[in-house]
Each structure stands twice: as structure tokens, then as C-alpha cells.
Amino acid sequence: MKLYRAALMHTPGSPFAVPDALQTHDDGGLLVEEGRILACGSYPDLRAAWPGAEVVDLRGGVLLPGFIDTHVHYPQVRVLGGLGMGLLEWLDKNTLPEEARLADDTYARAVAREFLAALASNGTTTALVFGSHYASAMDVFFGEAGASGLRVVAGQVVSDRMLRPELHTTPERTYTEGRALIERWHGVGRSLYAVTPRFSLSASEGILDACASLLREFPDVRFTSHINESPREIETVRRLFPEARDYLDTYERAGLVTRHSVFAHNVHPSNRELGVMAEHRCTAAHCPCSNSSLGSGLFPLRRHLQAGVHVSLGTDVGGGTGFSMLKEGLQAYFMQQLLGAEGEPLGPAHLLYLATRAGAEALGLADLTGDFGGGKAFDAVYLRPPPGTTLDTVLRHAEDPGRVLADLFTLGTQADVAQVWVGGDVVYQRAAASLEVSV
Ligand SMILES: Nc1nc2[nH]cnc2c(=O)[nH]1
Ligand SMILES: [Zn+2]
């Protein structure tokens, strides 16, 4: 039994629903046994109640629940930085040529390792991962994900039009390869499967129906895709699906809008779409860095909240600008500021919730991870800025926990991530002298 001692913060509730959702302990303790949290509270109280527990002294930094990235592309880590393009040009010129390279398993393995290492070193402990178009690259990915210790929900991406021929499949292969991957990997270790048509623009009704068949056969499997990202994309989908009422309807008619569905972006939704999403309790994964970089638009967070649609956060690497969920939270804040009177004012508690607990809820994993509640897995990120950095200076002068959290989102980077745990296992440790001091 270990007692981790640090300043700690988490959001067991939603700050969009309750005013005191942020819980903090300046001198906090987390009691952990076999990777599970037994208790979370003030260190002196826990120390008195469990005097025999081994103390891990992490004072000087802040312990947060591990970040949960609900939209990130495994094959795109090497093509980050493709600036100056809108979505469709960016896919065509920057991204799809790289995705085709994952036909080679050796290449795919190197990319998978880089990708998983980047998640862990940024403090992300759970990710909903858009996969590769190649089934063999997904076998490689799930193998590497198991070795990394991270929680991943991932699936083979499927498309049968409008991309490039080597990335296209058929409804039949969608079903047979998807089924084989689910049987091999869903529920194995910390991995789950997500059925993943790329977007309706590149999917025939046949492909969407094959995806629905998989979901009917494996009801516990998750679903993810893109929606309502850029005006040109939306217009093309309208032309490709003349019968559909709107973009969501292309998925809805196939039976793909469920509690297990996570739709990335949704920057330009209609009120009807928001109503249906709320009714089916699916999630919009907001990706503010990507929406800014690709010029997709300003996410209408308030309209989602007013309609009752659940919202989580994603980095959308490589349309986004990196793996940091701290940066993503800050960009979400910026975009609501830029919306003026239509923006939803976000405080640090909202940013922490969006980066952690909201993702766990989106993925149906809120009983397992996303906050430090008793019985949950010890999935955590320890942020400790190197001495002399601006964040280090600012934190020394922060007057209350809310301000500490705001400072972490404003100034925190990958360099401030000192250690990361999943289920009590260390999955990342910054190269330095050991931070664990047992007393
Ligand atoms: N941002 C983003 N949008 C997409 N829509 C279809 N594919 C993609 C992708 O790879 N990135
Ligand atoms: Zn994406």
C-alpha cells in the first residue's frame, strides 16, 4: 500500500452542472493498493488512518488525474506542422500520403512507438485513437499499446471513396477485418475497440452499414468518426447523401449514433443534430487547436451545453498542434473568449474536467478513470516544472488552487510532466534523479 503525498486536484463532478466540482488538497494524499485508489483526502488524515502505508513524497508538484484525449490519430504523428491548409487540402497533400506508408508493418511499428511515447510523455493515460486504414498496422498498434501500459480505445479506419485507392476497402472487408480485430484485441489488457469510418465523405452507405453490423454484433465496442468540421466538407457530404437531412443523419440512418459514439469536431451543427446527439447521449469531441490550425471555425460550446450534448476534448494530432492536453484546454478557453457574448466562459475547473473526467464519461469509463474517486484506477500525471522556468516562478506566487490550475493550463508543457501512472504502473518518468522519496 502506497500513500502518494502531493498537492492534488480533480473534478469528480462536472463544473458545467455543479458549482463546487473542483476538489483540491494543498497537502493531499492518495492511498493506492494494487493500482487502485483506496482513498483520496488530506495527507495528515490519511497518514493518521494508515500509519503503515509507504509514503511517496511528491511535494513540490501537482498531481492530476491522467489526461484523456478523445480524438487523436496514430498515423499522423510525423505530419504534425502541416500549416497553411484547410481540411480537404491538408488531407490530400499533408496527411493521406503518410497514412499510406503504414501499409509497411515496420514503418507502422516505428510510428506506433513514437505515437504512444508522445501520449505518455504528455500525461495522457487514456486515448480514443483514430487508427490506420490497414488491419496489419492495427495489430501492430494494439501490440505496442499493450506494451506501453496506456489505455487505448482504437480501431481500423475504413473508407471506400474519395481518398486514394490504396486507402480504400470494401464493406465486406470492413466487416471481416473489423470482426477479427475486435476478437483479437477488444478487452485485452487495457485496450478496447472502436469502429471507425473516417467520415461520411469517404464512406458509402455500404461501409456505414458494415460498421453498424459490427456494433450490433459487439454491443460493447465503441464508435467514432468525424462530423461537421469544415464548410466545404459539409457541402460535399450534402451532395453525396441527398436523402440525408444533415451530416449526422448520414450516421443516424445507419444506426451509428449511440451512447458509445464520439463525433470529432461538430463545429457547424444544426439544432436538429444537437437535439439528436443529446437524445442518444453521444459525445462531441472538441479539438480547438485543430479547428484553429485548419481554420475550421469556432466551436459552439454553449449551444452544445444548452442542448444537453456531452462534450470532451481531443488534440486531433496531426490536424492539431501536438499531444498536450494542457495546450488543448488553453486553446478551448481562447476560442470561447473569441466568441464574445456567444462564448461559454471557461474557468480552470472546466478545463480540468474537459481534459479528464469528460473523456472518461465519453468512453463509458467513468467508473474506472478520470478522477481520484475511491475504487478507480490510479491513473495520474504529476506536473512539476523544472526549477527556474516561468511556470515554476508563477506557481510559487499562486494564491489559491484555482489559480495554480489556471497557471498549469496557461504555461504547462510536456517539459513539466515529471511522471505518469496508469493503473499504478509508471508509464513515463522524466529523465532526472528519481522523484520518489520514501520516508
Ligand atoms: N481533422 C481531421 N479531420 C478529418 N476528417 C477526415 N479525416 C480527418 C483527419 O484525419 N483529420
Ligand atoms: Zn481527426
UniProtKB/TrEMBL annotation:
Native organism taxonomy: Bacteria, Thermotogati, Deinococcota, Deinococci, Deinococcales
Keyword flag Thylakoid: no
GO cellular component terms, A-Z: cytosol
Family: Belongs to the metallo-dependent hydrolases superfamily. ATZ/TRZ family.
Pfam families, per database record: Amidohydro_1 (PF01979), HUTI_composite_bact (PF22039)
Full protein name: Guanine deaminase
Catalytic reaction annotation: guanine + H2O + H(+) = xanthine + NH4(+)
Alphabetized Gene3D superfamilies for the sequence: Metal-dependent hydrolases, Urease, subunit C, domain 1
Chain ranges of the Aminodeoxyfutalosine deaminase/Imidazolonepropionase-like composite domain: 28-53
Cited function: Catalyzes the hydrolytic deamination of guanine, producing xanthine and ammonia.
SUPFAM superfamilies on file: Composite domain of metallo-dependent hydrolases, Metallo-dependent hydrolases
Cofactor note: Binds 1 zinc ion per subunit.
EC assignment: 3.5.4.3
GO biological process: guanine catabolic process
Record organism: Deinococcus aerius
Limits of the Amidohydrolase-related domain: 62-427
UniProtKB keywords: Hydrolase, Metal-binding, Zinc
GO molecular function list: guanine deaminase activity; zinc ion binding
